[in-house]
Amino acid sequence: MKRFVQHIIIFLPLALLFVVSMLWALGGTGWLRNVTYTLGHDDRLLTKVREVSAHRGADVLFLGSSHAYRTFDPRIFAERDIEIVNLGSSNQTPLQSEVLLRQYLDSVQPRLVVIEVHPDIMAYDGVESALYQLSAVPPSWHMVPMALRTRNLRVVCTMPYALLHNLVSDTANRFVEPLDGYVPVGYVERQVEHYSPQPHEPKTICVQDCQRRALRRCANYLQRKGVPYIMLEVPDTRVLMDSYTNLPRFQEDMSQFGPLYCSPVPGLDDSLHFYNEDHLNQCGVDLYCRMVRDLIIIPKLNSL
Question: What CA dihedral angle connects 130, 136, 138 and 141, to 10 degrees?
């Protein structure tokens, strides 16, 4: 038995070295179908984390999905001398928001954190966003529990390759993202398009337990740090909102984690202010951001 244990002790480091070597050699070739390392996305996350790494001090830090990075325009907040940092990313769930909070809260030092919550995102497993984050964000130990909590083979296999690759290689540092429509720090604008409302089948919102727990951890972390926070449910088209069979229950659920703002926006029109069923076009962004800024953000900042 003693000899067997000795063999195991010798074998494990060699096996680990072999696995790491294979990951390093094959991870970027496409031969390992469960390893996905990609740079350059519509959310411009790689560019954002480069900017935020050199950023010190902000009034408001925004976190969330495309409903955050395509909604909260720094130029509109700057009209009232409010400096914001927008770390929204594609399909970002609370699992990924937690990583960004732990990695950048101390450096950004915001006076207020805004977490965007959306019915579809809270029902999502976070796999796509996890893969983007592992590729684009500098490696940290915070990514390990995030990847494991997705319980997804692709994410778990990508994690060691991405962390090792970003640690020893300058690929991410040399990569240049296309910046058409990008507004520092964090907003991505697109040409104005108009949505043609379509009928929707009734849909029940099913919040994933892993996202509920992650949102609770985000709230607890901010409370320990003494940083005030609020949650915003960015408006969808009326046809989409009407299709949710349990929207009030969802909003009640989210309000258990902190102050939630989900009030209707006067004058918002499905055809005029959206480019698809759940994203505002620039006309809608202008209207909604000014409402959020003047009726929610400024009173909150003034009370701190």
Answer: 10
CB 295: neighbour CB atoms within 10 A? 13
User: Does 89 map to a domain?
Assistant: yes
Identify whether the C-beta of residue 166 lies closer than 8 Å to the C-beta of residue 172.
Answer: yes
> Residue 122 is encoded by which pair of tokens?
């809270």
pTM, two decimal places? 0.91
**Which residues, 6 or more positions from 258, have their beta carbon under 8 angstroms from its beta carbon?**
219, 229, 230, 231
Q: pLDDT tens digits for 76-117?
A: 999 999 999 999 999 999 999 999 999 999 999 999 999 999
Return the CATH number at 110: 3.40.50.1110
Spell out the residues 6+ positions from residue 182 whose beta carbon is closer than 8 angstroms to its own.
44, 47, 188, 189
Per DSSP bridges, beta strands 84-86 and 58-63 are parallel
* Residue span of the structural domain in which 117 resides: 56-124+182-303
Tokens of 49: 């984390």
Please give the Cα distance from 17 to 143 (Å, whole number): 21
Cα 120 to Cα 234: distance, rounded to the nearest angstrom: 12
What's at 150, amino acid-wise? T
CA atoms within 13 A on the CB side of 278: 18
